Each structure stands twice: as structure tokens, then as C-alpha cells.
Amino acid sequence: MTRIDSPLPLVNTGAAGAGQAGRAAGPVTTVTLSDSPPNLARMTAGSIIAGVVIGRNQKGQTQIRTDHGMLSFRTQIALPAGAQLILQIQPTGSQIQVAILSITLPGPDGATGNAGPGAQPAGGGASVPVEAGPGAAGSFHLHELARQWPALAEALAALQIGGGPAGQLLQALVARPDAQIAPTLLFFMAALTNSDIRDWLKNELGRALSAAGRRDLVASLSSDLSELSRLANPSDDAEWRAFLLPLDDGERISQIRFFLKRQRSAVPAGDDQPATRFIFEVDLSRLGSLQFDGLAGGSRFDLMVRSHAPLPRDVQARISAIFTAAREEGRLSGDVGFQTVAKFAISPLESALDRDAGVVA
Question: How many domains, in total, are found in the chain?
Fold first, then answer.
């Protein structure tokens, strides 16, 4: 039996496995792409791709349909048609490699709704184990939601056609890289932590989407807001509070990942105020994935900036200048540093998703 140890859980969407998921032991599986679209070579290492298995070609290679085009690779894992994969581009040379981070198995009818007509199941070979785990069926969706928000994009398109106050309201929830980004993000964070604001949003948007003929989106958007709210409001104050915040960069809507935690142990002796640990993650088209890891407590503020590839000197200089200005305005001490790492050692998203799915690491 082939086992996959993945940062993301394996999920079975079939009737027998509904609501069950688990982690398996063993190395993460990495495969080399034999056929891939040209635009894939321009993507940065660490980029996440979602795809659906459509079967095998005449060469016996597994074929995956993605938003970036068709991918083909050889693997000993039996991937049935309709299985959904989350893939991550790996730092390599001339050949493109991807790590299989998670697999969502199709239901008894052999499809998840994305496989094309006539797709044949992958034959023979080892099977992918799916072990029982309480309440983790939605974890695959949450991992997708951490990168993109399809229901929000569809709702924006639907309400733009009809216009009106509800469309403007939905636009106001999406941050843009301009002077209004901070208040927009603060408003969205308030919506996730305040049940009254969240319920008002659901009602207003629900009525507008129904009037626009997209009642099918009401349940999806409402469910997504509830999922995001649970991540932002853990029952234990010692846990990470996770905020997945939509950002429109002019080409697509991606998700900013922002995490907060109180850390009393990090405060100097005699200071009754707990320190605030925050992590801010964003995926950029030119610089790749960035992680800003900060600790603010008492009169000190420290920041570590992590990236998968060395940041250009001018970018480091600009980040340092912004940090210094903020530190001086607050009359704080502290330092900023830069690290280049293959993988972010601190992953509050995984911790938050495991907590939400009921998985104990």
C-alpha cells in the first residue's frame, strides 16, 4: 500500500468515507511533469495548483486538468478519474516537479463533478489509504479557501451585472493594493469576529444574489463565511486566530493569510501586557510566497521576513525602511531580519486547519 505523508490531509468524499479524513505516514510524493503548459514554467516555486484527474494517456501517464492547462506525469499511486489533487511546484532545474500535497477521492459514482465525460479510472497499482478522523471532511475545501475564494469571485461577477448597494457592499469586502487596504482588511476581520455583522452580511448578500438569479451561491457564500469565522474565533485563547482575507491585485482574487496569537511568555518580566505574535503570508506573482513573522510586546517590535528565494536588495531596503518608520513612530526598539528557506518552519495555517477539522497532531 502506498502511503503519503502530506501537509494536507487525504480526504474521502465517498458515501462510506463522508466526514472522515486522516494523515498517513511516509514521504511526500514528488513527480516530474512530462507534459506541462508553457506558463507553468514561469510560476514560482511553492505555488499551489488544484487539479482533477481525468485518466491516463496511451503512455500510461496520469493526466490532470488544471486552470493552467493539462499536466501529465508517471506515478505508482492509483489515482481514479475524478480525484481532486492539490499540487505544489518544487524548486528544480530544467524539469518541472510538483509535490502531491493532498488527494480527495471521488464518490461511489467515480466523479467529483469536474471529470470530463468518458474519463477512465486509473488502473492497477497501489491504493491511497484514507484513515478515519473526526470532522475533517471540510479540510480540503479550507485549504482551497486559503488560496482562493471561488464563491466570492462568482458572487462579485453576478452582482456587478445587477449593480446596486449589495454589489458595492461585496466590493467593499475585497482589499486592493491601495491606500484603503488597511481599513478594508479591518472591516473584513470585524465581520468574521462579530456575529451581528456577519449575519447582516449574509442576509443582505443572500437577498441580492437571489434577485440576481444566483440563489445557488447563497448557501456557498454563507458556508464559507461560517468556515472563515470559525478559524478566526478559536475556543482557546492560546491558539492561532486565522484570518483569510480576499485581495484583488487587478488580475485575480487571492487570499491574504493573517494570524494572531497572544504570547505572555515573550514579554519581559514585570510587564503585565501579553505580547502579540502575528504572521502575515501572501503569494506574489514576482516574489513568490512571503511570510512576515512579527512579535510586538512592551516597548519592542521585532520582524522576520521569510521567502523561498532571496529577495532583491531594493525590496529588502524598502521593507526595512517601512519597518524602521513604524518602529520610530511607536517609539519602539527592535530589529528586522530576512531569511531564505525552502519551507516555512512555522505554519499557523496548518495548526488552525487541524484544529478546525478536529485532527490532533
Answer: 2
User: What is the H or E stretch that residue 222 is in?
Assistant: helix 216-232
User: Do 237 and 293 belong to one domain?
Assistant: yes
Q: Which amino acid is at 87?
A: L
Q: 275, 266 in Cβ contact below 8 A? A: yes
172 and 107 belong to one structural domain:
no
For helices 195-211 and 216-232, angle between their N-to-C axes, nearest 10 degrees: 160
Residue 1 lies in a domain: no
CA distance 109 to 185: 41
Q: What is the mean pLDDT of the chain?
A: 73
Cβ proximity of 305 and 290 under 8 Å: yes
Domain end: 108, 137, 166, which one?
A: 137
Query: What is each CA distance from 38 to 68, 111, 283, in whole angstroms?
Result: 9, 28, 20
Closest residue by Cα to residue 11 from 143, 149, 151: 143
| 180 and 302 share one domain | yes
Query: Can you give the pLDDT at residue 254?
Result: 80
Task: Tell me the per-residue pLDDT of 19-65, one tens digit each, with 9 for 90 and over.
Answer: 333 333 345 688 888 877 777 777 777 788 888 888 777 778 888 88
The alpha-carbon radius of gyration of the chain (Å, integer) is: 22
Q: How far apart are CA 100 and CA 213, in angstroms?
A: 38
Residue 5 lies in a domain: no
Q: Which residues of the chain have pLDDT under 70?
A: 1-28, 92-94, 106-141, 161-164, 166, 251, 264-273, 354-361
Separation between Cα atoms, residue 10 and residue 20, nearest integer Å: 9
Domain-embedded: residue 88:
yes
Q: Are 126 and 205 within one domain?
A: no
In the chain, DSSP finds a helix count (H) and a strand count (E) of: 8, 14
Q: How far apart are the C-alpha atoms of 88 and 83, rounded to whole Å? A: 16
What was the pLDDT predicted at 19?
32
* Contacts of 265 by beta carbon, 8 Å cutoff, 6+ apart: none
What phi, psi does 209 have (nearest 5°)?
Answer: -70, -40
**Hey, what's the cell of 335?**
530589529
Domain end: 103, 137, 171, which one? 137
| Per-residue model confidence as pLDDT tens digits over 86-139 | 888 887 666 788 888 888 876 554 433 333 322 333 333 223 332 323 333 345
